[in-house]
Structure formats: C-alpha cells, structure tokens
UniProtKB/TrEMBL annotation:
PANTHER family, sorted: CBB3-TYPE CYTOCHROME C OXIDASE SUBUNIT FIXP
Pfam families referenced in this protein's UniProt entry, alphabetically: Cytochrom_C, Cytochrome_CBB3
Domain (Cytochrome c): residue spans on this chain: 60-155, 178-273
Source taxonomy: unclassified sequences, metagenomes, ecological metagenomes
Protein name from the UniProt record: Cytochrome c domain-containing protein
GO terms, molecular function: electron transfer activity; heme binding; metal ion binding
Keyword Ion transport: no
The keyword Iron is annotated on this UniProt entry: yes
Alphabetic keyword roster: Heme, Iron, Metal-binding
InterPro entries assigned: Cyt_c-like_dom, Cyt_c-like_dom_sf, Cytochrome_c_Oxidase_Subunit
C-alpha cells in the first residue's frame, strides 16, 4: 500500500522555515494592506469629478516624467531603466539598473525600497566617484519630482511593497581620540580591512575580486578621500550607510552593532579625511 502524499509545505522539513518566512512578511503585507485601505477610503470619498481630475494629474506627471527621462536619463540608464543606454558601455562603474528596484542609497532599513526623498536626493546631489552628475542646480523641483514618479514605474517592486521604517540616527558622541581609537578597533574586529584596506586605502585582500549583484566588478574607493563617498561623507551620511548597507553590493548592513559603535567607526573614517588629518590618533594603538 503506497504512502499518502505529503503536502510539500506542511512537511516537517520545510514547514518551520516557511512559517518563519510568513511571519517575517506579515508586517510588510499588513502595512501594504493598510496603506491600500487608506488610499481606497480617500478614493471613495472623492466625487467622480475629483477622481477624474486626480487620474488626469497623475497621467500628466507621468507624461512629464517620461519626457524628462528621455531627455536627461535615457543615454545612461536606457529606455526601460535597465542600465543599458548608449553611453553605458563607456561608463565604469556602470549606471544603476532601475528596473530591478534595488537602490544602494536610501534612508530606510536594509534591503528596503527608498523613499521618494531618497531618490530626489540622488538626482539632485549625484553620486560622487561615478558618472551620475548632480542635477540639483539644473533641474527644477517639478522636473525632479516627475522623474521620481516615472522612474518608479520601471520596477514592479514599487507596486508590491512599501519602504521599510526610516533609519533612526543615534546621538553622536564627541569626535575625539577616544572615539576614533574605538572606531579603529571595531573596524578591525569587523574585518573591514579585507575590502577597504587596513587604513581605508582600498587595497584589501578582497578588493580585486568583489562583484555586484549583476556579476560586474565592484569598485572599492579610497576612504581617505571624502569626495568619493558615494552615499555622502557627512557623519550622518556615513552612519546611514553603515546602518543600511549598500543594497545589491558586497557592502553589508551593520545594523546589528550599537549606535555608539557605528559612530566610533564614522569618526575613525572621518579622521582619515584631509580636513581632519590634523586630529592626533595618539590613543589608537592603546585600545586593544
């Protein structure tokens, strides 16, 4: 007599991890459902004329966004946001593949969608050390906002989930030798030097073999050159990068270490910058 078939999802082997996955996704699903409920309430409260006006306004913004994208962005990012524009073959590192919905720079938690303000910040400020220019002084806020709306249509992910909670920036301790020394100690403990080099000079043992999620070579930048910090070189910028990581890259999130430890690493990295090179590191060797 043959054994009765066992449901794949209910088998003892697979049920626990599937259950864990479901429990992890529940808050995100619940958040998306609640957001859609609110949108539905707003839509239902509108008159037919208001609904029609809202649809027309959205269509107009998308139309403007597409026109602006074709004018300013298509040459690098490509017609469908796949990073395959005509200029892309001459650019290294290559343009972001917007159709994946994976953004390296965001103020939300790791592996999350960015907020609109994050995309605005990238467009306006550019990405140092890459071919992505700063458009802030060239494009109006209206143009930038239309680009954000249109760019989000490339990735289905924006229609399936919401950004996670915004990162909370912990209180910064004093920038002093004590903080710098503890930052250097943590930098060594986390083995950051394997990629970034012992003192951030980009010559770590893994620096030549790192790959992006697309399989392309990954650039390690000199951390002593603050102009090359792609996510920004201010204290808050570096803290945010350490907390969120750089999605789609080998740079992990360090949200599991304490706020003070992250700030100490920030101060160690900032001590490498030319502006703060005069800061004596007399205590660095004393912290063991």
């Amino acid at each position: 007599m043959s054994n009765p078939p066992v449901n794949f999802f209910l088998s003892e082997k697979y049920f626990p991890p599937i259950l864990v996955l479901v429990l992890l996704l529940l808050p995100q699903i619940s958040q998306a459902i609640e957001s859609r409920k609110i949108e539905k309430l707003i839509e239902d409260a509108q008159s037919p004329i208001e609904k029609q006006t809202r649809v027309k306004e959205k269509q107009l913004v998308l139309k403007q966004g597409k026109e602006n994208y074709l004018k300013y962005c298509i040459h690098c990012h490509g017609k469908e946001g796949k990073g395959d524009g005509r200029a892309s073959k001459y650019i290294n590192p290559q343009p972001r593949e917007l159709s994946q919905g994976i953004y390296k720079f965001h103020s939300t938690k790791t592996n999350s969608l960015p907020l609109d303000e994050d995309i605005v910040r990238i467009i306006k400020g550019g990405v140092p050390g890459t071919a992505m220019p700063a458009w802030g002084e060239i494009l109006s806020n209206e143009v930038v906002n239309s680009l954000v709306i249109y760019i989000k249509t490339f990735a289905e992910r924006f229609g399936m989930e919401l950004p996670k909670q915004k990162i909370s920036i912990g209180m910064e301790p004093p920038f002093d030798d004590f903080s710098i020394a503890h930052g250097k100690k943590k930098y060594d403990e986390l083995r950051c030097g394997r990629c970034h080099g012992e003192n951030g000079e980009k010559e770590g043992e893994l620096s030549k073999i790192l790959k992006s999620f697309k399989g392309t070579n990954w650039f390690i930048y000199d951390l002593s050159r603050k102009d090359f910090y792609k996510g920004g070189s201010s204290g808050v910028d570096i803290y945010r990068t350490l907390t969120a990581g750089l999605d789609g890259s080998p740079m992990n999130s360090y949200d599991y270490i304490s706020d003070i430890e992250r700030w100490n690493i920030v101060h160690f990295l900032q001590s490498l910058h030319s502006v703060k090179k005069n800061k004596k590191l007399s205590t660095v060797q004393k912290i063991t």
